Amino acid sequence: MKRTEHPQIELQIAPMIDVCFLLLFFYILTSKPVKPEADMSMTLPGTVAQEESLDIPDEQRIAIQDNGQIVLNDLALDKPDDKNLPALLSTLKRFRESSEANKSQALITLDVSDTATHQRVVDVLNACAEAGIQGVTFAGATGDEE
């Protein structure tokens, strides 16, 4: 008995790749593109500049106490020994930005205790200058002087 050899079957990959590409092109061309989400016309809350100036000036009162404590409108800020005054500086910057949005001048009145150090007054003035506030005045004497 003679053995017959069967030819080995090979899989041709090139025509299969061609068919896959044709199917891919067919699906790409016949599919409908997805519409992107539409933008909603709304604005988020923020700072909006007013059209005309207000007659009411924005004024804040900063008190410098005997121990060096800084009090802004009855709110104690920073430590008495802190020279940089970060909380006062950030508050003054926000105050200036809101005053500019209202088209009014930011005003600061310093009420300095008689026994407060001069360096503490300079620290507060430096914070006002760094925040961009130019309207700084000193409060008059409130004590009973005769």
Overall description:
The chain is of the alpha/beta class and 146 residues long. It has a domain at 58-138: Nucleotidyltransferase, domain 5 (2-Layer Sandwich). Helices cover 33% and strands 16% of the residues. The protein has three helices and five strands, in the order αβββαβαβ. The protein has a five-stranded mixed beta sheet with strand order 3-2-1-4-5, with helices on one face. A hairpin with a 5-residue loop joins β1 and β2 (70-72). The radius of gyration is 37 Å and the shape is elongated. The mean pLDDT is 81.
**What share of the residues does DSSP label as strand, in percent?**
15-25%
Q: Which residues form runs of ≥5 with pLDDT under 50?
A: none
Class by alpha and beta content: alpha/beta
Q: What about the largest sheet?
A: 5 strands, mixed
Q: Count of DSSP helices?
A: 3
CATH architecture of the domain at 58-138: 2-Layer Sandwich
Distance between the termini: 142 Å
What Rg, in angstroms, do the CA atoms define? Answer: 37 Å
Helical percentage: 25-40%
- The count of strands amounts to 5
CATH class of the domain at 58-138: Alpha Beta
Shape: elongated
Q: What is the residue-averaged pLDDT?
A: 81
Give the neighbour order of strands across the main sheet.
3-2-1-4-5
CATH topology assignment of the domain at 58-138: Nucleotidyltransferase, domain 5
Query: What oligomeric state is this?
Result: single chain
